[in-house]
Amino acid sequence: MSGFSRFLDWVSEYLAQRKGLLPMLAILLVLLNFVFSLLPALGFLATSNLFLHLGVILGLFGLMLARAL
Predict the structure, then answer these.
(1) Distance separating alpha carbons of residues 46 and 43, to the nearest angstrom
(2) Where would a tag sit more exposed on the chain, N or C end, judged by fewer CB atoms within 10 A?
(3) Burial 5-38 (b: 16+ CB within 10 A, else e)
(4) Is the distance from CB of 26 to CB of 59 less than 8 angstroms?
(5) Taking a C-beta distance cutoff of 8 angstroms, is the pair 49, 35 a contact?
(6) pLDDT tens-digit readout, 32-68
(7) How far apart are the first and last CA of the chain?
(8) H helices, E strands: number in the chain
(9) In what helix (H) or strand (E) does residue 4 lie, and over which residues does it extend?
C-alpha cells in the first residue's frame, strides 16, 4: 500500500505544477473524436463517440483537480 501512496504523491505533485495538462488532453481527445467521426471506415471508433466521452470526463476532472491543487 505504501507504493500506491508514493505514486499518488508523485502524481499530485506532477499535476500541481501542470494545472492545464488534463484539460488540454481532454480537448485533444474531443478533436480526435471529431476526426474519427469523419472517417466512417473506422467502425466502432467512428460510431461510439468513445473519445468524446473520455475527453469530457477528463476535462471536468482536470478542472476540478486544478481548482483543488
Answers:
(1) 5
(2) N
(3) eeeeeeeeeebeeeeeebbeebeebbebbeebbe
(4) yes
(5) no
(6) 999 999 988 888 888 889 999 999 999 999 888 888 8
(7) 23
(8) 4, 0
(9) helix 2-17
